Amino acid sequence: MKLFYFHAILHYMIIKAIISDLGRVFVDFDHDISCKKVAKLAKCDIEDVYDFIYRHKIDIKLDRGEIAPYQFYRRVKEHFKLKISYKEFALIFSDIFTLITPVYKLYLKLKKKYEIVFLSNTNIIHFETCLKKMPLKKVFRTGVLSYKEGIMKPHPRIYLKAVSLTGFKPEECVYIDDIHEFVDAARLVGLNGIQYRNIGQLKRELTKLGVR
């Protein structure tokens, strides 16, 4: 019985750091907001904008840092014949995020006991224009951005980069993401993983790992 309790205590002590996705975990977002604004300016259908940016995946090139933000802006501007500045475009393209307050409050509480870093597939326009203005520094000490690394989840190396920032081993970290594929990829490199669905479920899953 004593041995059982010893292992139980050891299990609950193992998690020392939390690595969290941003989009749809810490902040929500809606691409339709920016697509509608561009469509209105271009006098076209919202689906045309969505197809050009997201179905043709030029946003992925931006998220990987393969194209410069101004180059991305020029492509969209020229395709839809927009008459707006880069600054105006950046605001339209990035004004899609809202803070998920329950998760923010939970992380504020947990940061007193755990190292918390973020790991995000995102681009420089979104991060510099909007995400940077979110209360990231109040929760996260640091983080990993795909456009700076030149790779995206689910590449194993980007998870290991985030782990290295915590100063702990993969098995001492838990990774939280809303996308199942990305959680599975984190587990393959040794992290504990939780697929985020809602705040109640997240708290329950963290409690199972001894994080409270």
Can you give me a brief rundown of this structure?
With 212 residues, the protein is α/β, with parallel strands linked by helices. 52% of the residues lie in helices and 14% in strands. It is built from twelve helices and seven strands.
Verbal overview:
- With 212 residues, the protein is an alpha/beta fold.
- It has 2 domains: 2-29 and 98-208, HAD superfamily/HAD-like (Rossmann fold); 31-94, Orthogonal Bundle (DNA polymerase, domain 1), CATH 1.10.150.
- Helices cover 52% and strands 14% of the residues.
- It has helices at residues 2-13, 31-42, 46-55, 58-63, 69-80, 86-94, 101-110, 124-129, 146-149, 156-166, 180-188, 199-208, and strands at 17-20, 27-29, 97-99, 115-120, 142-145, 173-177, 192-195.
- The strands form 2 sheets. The chain has a 5-stranded parallel β-sheet with strand order 5-4-1-6-7, with helices on both faces.
- Helix 2 (31-42) crosses helix 3.
- It is elongated and about 55 Å long.
Write the layout of secondary structure elements.
Layout (H helix, E strand, L loop, with lengths): L1 H12 L3 E4 L6 E3 L1 H12 L3 H10 L2 H6 L5 H12 L5 H9 L2 E3 L1 H10 L4 E6 L3 H6 L12 E4 H4 L6 H11 L6 E5 L2 H9 L3 E4 L3 H10 L4
Parallel strand pairs: 1-4, 1-6, 4-5, 6-7
Antiparallel strand pairs: 2-3
Helix pairs in contact: 2-3
